[in-house]
Amino acid sequence: MSRTLSVLALGALLSACSDPELERRVQDLEAKVAALESRGPAAPMGAAPAANPEQEQAAAALLKEATLAVDQMQYDVAKEKVAVLKAEYGSTRAAKASARIEQELAIVGKPEAPLKVEKWYQGSDADAHGKATMYVIWEVWCPHSRKEVPRLTETYDRFHGAGLSIVGVTRQTKDVTDEQVTDFIRDNKVSYPIAKDASSGLSDYYGVRGIPAAAVVKDGVVVWRGHPAKVSDEMLNGWLGR
């Protein structure tokens, strides 16, 4: 039971504020916990049979392959891996964990969401249109957001001249004030536009379950969805045609 609670606690943390390395570690941990629990007492009558350790390992391997395919923007490959994972290992923890990847894959190819801004802390609507635009959903209370949002300043400064737009979008949850956001922008010398979302529409449309999260749009279509730390120079150069 304690092992299960530990995994659930980590899952709850990820749903609020996510980190890609932590996500990978949790996926591995879930597979190991499932293997241990599968040796325990028999499941209640009517419950789905638990996956055995070999199934958990095979499912975890498929999940890693799907994750790698997403990172490499091989979306068709990723979809195939997830489909096999759910069809052949549907009772495994890896299959359940694949829901996040499946949700992100469903976003790619959708039209760009309308940007409805309550206020701009810096920048304007005109700054949201480049050769490629990266929307970054974040909150000032999230430690991973506090790390990633300033880091993206260096990316913005290097690629903005080539046509990259970055727009940081916050909903100011957990009673965060305008002053806290403004202070964070100033203290961390964030150079790209930051806006307050007029509603949760942007987060909902882009399927955000953990923050920080990013969606990259090119020619009015979503071409990538994931954690902003996974965006590489090679990916940016490709989107910008360099």
Explain what the structure shows.
The protein has 242 residues and is an alpha/beta fold. It has 2 domains: 2-107, no CATH class; 117-239, 3-Layer(aba) Sandwich (Glutaredoxin), CATH 3.40.30.10. Helices cover 50% and strands 14% of the residues. The protein has 9 helices and 6 strands; from the N terminus they run H-H-H-H-H-E-E-H-E-H-E-H-E-E-H. A 6-stranded mixed beta sheet has the order 1-4-3-2-5-6. A hairpin with a 2-residue loop joins strand 5 (213-218) and strand 6 (221-226). The longest helix has 19 residues, at 53-71. The N and C termini lie far apart (52 Å). The relative contact order is 0.14.
Quick synopsis:
The protein is α/β, with parallel strands linked by helices. Helix content is 50%, strand content 14%. It folds into two domains: 2-107, no CATH class; 117-239, Glutaredoxin (3-Layer(aba) Sandwich), CATH 3.40.30.10.
